Amino acid sequence: MTNFADLTTIAVGGPIASFIEPTSRVGVIEAVEDADAKGLPLCVIGGGSNMLVADTPFDGVVVRDARHAVSVLDEAAPVENGETIVHVNAEAGCNWDDFVDYCVNLGLEGVEGLSGIPGTVGASVVQNIGAYGQEVASSVESVEVWDRKDKQTKELTNQELHFGYRMSVLKASMYSAPATPAAEFFPTPRYVVLSVTFALHHSATGVVGYGQLAKALGVEVGERMSTTDIRNAVLKVRASKGMLEDSHRYLTEAMRGTKKSELVAIAHNAQRTQEGNDEPDYNRHSCGSFFMNPILTKEQAARLPEDAPRFSATLPDGTPGVKTSAAWLIDHAGFHKGYKTSENATAGLSTMHTLALTNRGGASAADIMNLAKTVQDGVERAYGIRLIPEPVVIGMSLK
Ligand SMILES: Cc1cc2nc3c(=O)[nH]c(=O)nc-3n(C[C@H](O)[C@H](O)[C@H](O)COP(=O)(O)OP(=O)(O)OC[C@H]3O[C@@H](n4cnc5c(N)ncnc54)[C@H](O)[C@@H]3O)c2cc1C
């Protein structure tokens, strides 16, 4: 029997009653529709890098789309401002970093800053992945979905996807309020992604959009660099923070074949060189950033200490707000890198990044939850801010 622990980057989660891997578009729709028609809990899973699932059995259906194809829809076509846009379509099950590598090698600009983010193309649009000054929202043209409510396929345009910070209409369909699941569809959106069409620029260079990246490349923010150099620098910076997947997971039975074997080998070599051994890297056994950066009203932000980071942002109601750093809040509330609730705890903060909750080997979902709640409560006590988890929390409640 397959367990969520076998399918998720944080390697926790209980047994799955029914695990299906359709290899065709119609197979995906049928698997989803069949589970919905029977009223069974449904979880469409990609790379399992943004979910924390309970240890108890999941008495429903887990669907993992086994389609990975990428196709270039048109030749580079000049548009009015002299730029050239190339449309590329990727099936939902395609590994995200395989897709980025493909685009960079083809001389396409637009997703290079998102190198090394685990997961799939299908899930990339659910939470509008972002890093190093880029968000997937800026390169998505449209998404083909199966609408579980209207029971038909639809093409949602970029505008209809209502992208925001770690948000889209897909993610919104799973929640009735922040971190409060909406029973109708949770833990998978109303719209199951079948494929994503990207509009990318035909260019071998891209913009360096983030200070840390610019420093690593020895250039100024806003300068243009080769997309290959940007990709390599992003992977290096990510590795230095433990913000990549542990490449060992692709050698397991449950994950084999979900990522291109050449790229697994490259990632594996890089990890071995960095670590100096071939052991699992527990700093990478995480869901990435566990909490979202809070977006506060100006009044709330004014109550933060003077040295707390502040960035302009938009509140969910569309009014101006202030984004602060969840990592800063956690660290300044006393939870430093490597923090554990007790010396022998198997769950702990990454020793490289305060925002990553990690499974140090043998942790259960309950252990991760205990750590998450401890951090959440501590930050609230110190700053009056309740951090909202970024991953989808299934079978447990973390508000
Ligand atoms: C080490 C590490 C670093 C990370 N860094 C970043 C980062 O820099 N930026 C960032 O934004 N995120 C980051 N993440 C989070 C995560 O990688 C992304 O959110 C990713 O897009 C999740 O993809 P997945 O396929 O693993 O989704 P899963 O975890 O499998 O699923 C997440 C949600 O998406 C839904 N879903 C999956 N596939 C589909 C589909 N086809 N249709 C509809 N819904 C679907 C699931 O039902 C679930 O609700 C990181 C995670 C890790 C472990």
Automatic annotation (TrEMBL):
A molecular function GO annotation:
FAD binding
Top-level enzyme category: oxidoreductase
**Similarity comment: family membership:** Belongs to the MurB family.
**Residue numbers annotated as active site:** R166, S289 (proton donor), E390
Record-linked HAMAP family: MurB
**Annotated localization:** Cytoplasm
The keyword Transmembrane helix is annotated on this UniProt entry: no
Q: Name one GO cellular component term.
A: cytosol
Q: Which UniProt keywords apply?
A: Cell cycle, Cell division, Cell shape, Cell wall biogenesis/degradation, Cytoplasm, FAD, Flavoprotein, NADP, Oxidoreductase, Peptidoglycan synthesis
Q: Which cofactor does it need?
A: FAD
PANTHER family in UniProt: UDP-N-ACETYLENOLPYRUVOYLGLUCOSAMINE REDUCTASE (PTHR21071)
Q: Which SUPFAM superfamilies match?
A: FAD-binding/transporter-associated domain-like, Uridine diphospho-N-Acetylenolpyruvylglucosamine reductase, MurB, C-terminal domain
Q: Which reaction does it catalyse?
A: UDP-N-acetyl-alpha-D-muramate + NADP(+) = UDP-N-acetyl-3-O-(1-carboxyvinyl)-alpha-D-glucosamine + NADPH + H(+)
Out of the domains of life, which is the source? Bacteria
Please name the NCBIfam families in this protein's record. Answer: PRK13903.1
Location of the FAD-binding PCMH-type domain: 12-203
Catalytic activity, EC: 1.3.1.98
- Mention one GO biological process in which this protein takes part, according to its record: cell division
Please give one Pfam family short name: MurB_C
| Protein name as annotated | UDP-N-acetylenolpyruvoylglucosamine reductase
Q: Where is it mostly found?
A: cytoplasm
InterPro entries recorded for this chain?
FAD-bd_PCMH, FAD-bd_PCMH-like_sf, FAD-bd_PCMH_sub1, FAD-bd_PCMH_sub2, MurB, MurB_C, MurB_C_sf, Oxid_FAD_bind_N
